[in-house]
Predict the 3D structure of the following.
Amino acid sequence: MYVAVKGGEKAIENAHAWLAEERRGATDIAELSIAQIREQLSLAVNRVMAEGSLYDPDLAALAIKQARGDLIEAVFLIRAYRTTLPRFGYSNPIATGEMACDRRISATFKDAPGGQVLGPTFDCTHRLLDFKLAAEGEVLAAPTAHPRTGATPHITEFLKGEDIIQDEPASDATPGDLTREPMEFPSTRPLRLQSLTRGDEGFVLGMAYSTQRGYARNHAFVGELRIGKVVVEMDIPELGFAIDIGEIEVTECETVNQFKGSKTEPPQFTRGYGLVFGQSERKSIAMALVDRALRWEELGEDNLGAPAQDEEFVLSHADNVQATGFLEHIKLPHYVDFQSELELVRKLRREAEERNASQEAEPSERGPL
Amino acid sequence: MTNQANHSNAPRQAWMGLLARAPEGVLMALWGGYEARPAFEWLRRPEVGGVMVRGRAGSVGASFNLGEMTVTRCSLMLEDGTVGHGYVQGRSKPKAEVAALIDAMMQTSAAGAVHEQVIAPLKDHVQAAKADRAAKAAATKVEFFTLVRGENS
């Protein structure tokens, strides 16, 4: 039960003023600019864009500043902002095969056409704190080499040539949009992908890890991981043709999964797919693993009762804004709720004590049960 | 309307796409150096909105909604009736206005001058930035070499 309670306006106002002061921190330290956050904390910016489900690096940087670096709070701010935007339309599906790849690796084919391009990765760093970063210093320009021209082909295309990997039939059917209609179960793969790409990175990572540890294990290889920019194209009604409306950075992961075959499918490789805004490598690999686990029914696999196979469980708990909202609402005043609980527990206690007292007074005639 | 062109839309697609993607600072600096600015009236004042970006499952399969991006759009008309549309990434109304104006002017006799002073250098800038990243990526390409093992010797 909710009962409106008034009061505390002054306290709230003062709390917000103090929040602003604490956000700023010591004033003898230079204030962070939005551009600094955007340029120097870009992976945090990427995460806020992915989970906020809005690609706008400056807005994500602003949200991070306002949230004092609390990324879930920043995601919440972005989600709230995006509801105020009129929807101009839907883009054509981005063509990741045309991506200008900053990074592109395959764990399945050493000599993949296009090569293994590491890009600006943390991989193979020693994970030792670099105290040089604590001091100001010039950064040397990264080395360059003569770039290959032409698009980088997807690895799965080579397996498809051999007909040894499950097909992914193209479809332009209008996908469901969970920003427009509430999620219903059973869901569809497009809705699952939309939910996973904006889902909490920690949650999706945990679900993916559970599949690796044996809860609906699906033997994933990273067939390909690529990070880079793709153009976004949209049909413009007033023009009567499509134009590029921008360019976004995305991370794409395609897993190739061992599959012994099922009642309906021959032995072949199957696929999981991850596509996430920004440079979001961990998230996109995790997304691909969970996507693959959720495809058990379509592939005729057994339901092992694993959490990662349960779409209702996964999709209902992946959203950190929803989860935070429900979790944190229990700290808000529940005075009346609690008052009635208190009455109830007192009554039960009184009754129990009376029962015990009467049982002690007249020893059981029936003996122990 | 001068927009109902039956010929190929490719050139217009190219400049509109370039204007949409171009960094605002670079575009505004180039436009700032362009002198002859025509008068226009608004058909649709700049407005900020969102476009839902789609992807495809497995990169080639069924389409799905990936997430939104911010876009600003506007439409205007020059005194001779030429209509220009601006659709640009982000939330900058001044950028959308400049994009719409350039789109209109590129359909008039001013096209040559606008191309020379704004579009061409903008394209050079965007291509140079892209080439720079591609060159850095190329330097991180792994060159494998196989070590000869002694088992058969």
About this structure: The helical segments of chain B are 10-21, 24-32, 93-105, 111-139.
